[in-house]
Amino acid sequence: MAVTVYQYPKCSTCRKALKWLDSRGIAYRTVDIVADPPLAATLERLLRRSGLPVAKFFNTSGQSYRAGNFRERLASMTEAEACAALAADGKLIKRPLVDAPNAVLVGFDADAWAEALE
After folding, report:
1. Region of residue 18 (phi > 0: left; psi between -120 and 50: alpha; otherwise: beta)
2. Among the listed residues 35, 37, 26, the one whose alpha carbon sits nearest the alpha carbon of residue 2
3. Lowest-confidence range among 14-18, 43-47, 62-66?
4. What is the model's pTM?
5. What is residue 1's predicted lDDT score, i.e. its pLDDT?
6. Please, which residues bridge with residue 98 across strands?
7. Separation between Cα atoms, residue 5 and residue 2, nearest integer Å
8. Which of 2, 4, 86, 109 is such that its CA lies 20 to 30 A from the CA of 18?
9. What are phi and psi of 93, to 5 degrees?
10. Which of 40, 38, 89 is nearest to 67 (CA)?
11. pLDDT at position 53, please?
């Protein structure tokens, strides 16, 4: 299974993460998280594999998060409802989101990425 990086081309953190992968010779494929967001079922699978709470998958600094009042709403949402909301608007998803054979990574942290991908 290849490394899939869900990213937004205009996101500087995503560009930094892709440069990091390139500099280490790690093969990957990219998916534009806004134009082609992952399906809710895919997000549920990634959530289970990550072991993280669903709140960690949300881009809490984004405009969509604020406009949708997710800070208040998230506490009362089921995981399935939260994943459906994420799938409906890729800008809600914290990026980059990486689906790798041995890890799911949310956001870019060079140390965590090195541990999981190298």
Report:
1. alpha
2. 26
3. 62-66
4. 0.92
5. 56
6. 5, 105
7. 10
8. 86
9. -85, 130
10. 89
11. 96
Q: In the chain, what percentage of residues exceed pLDDT 70?
A: 99
Contact between residue 81 and residue 109 where contact means Cβ atoms under 8 Å apart: no
Q: Which of 43, 108, 29, 35 is nearest to 81 (CA)?
A: 43
Sign of torsion, CA 35 39 40 42?
A: negative
Dump pLDDT digits (tens) for 87-103: 999 999 999 999 999 99
* Torsion angle defined by CA atoms of residues 91, 36, 24 and 11, in that order, rounded to the nearest 10 degrees: -30
Cα 42 → chain centroid: 11
Domain boundaries, the chain: 3-117
> By the 8 A CB rule, do 21 and 112 touch?
no
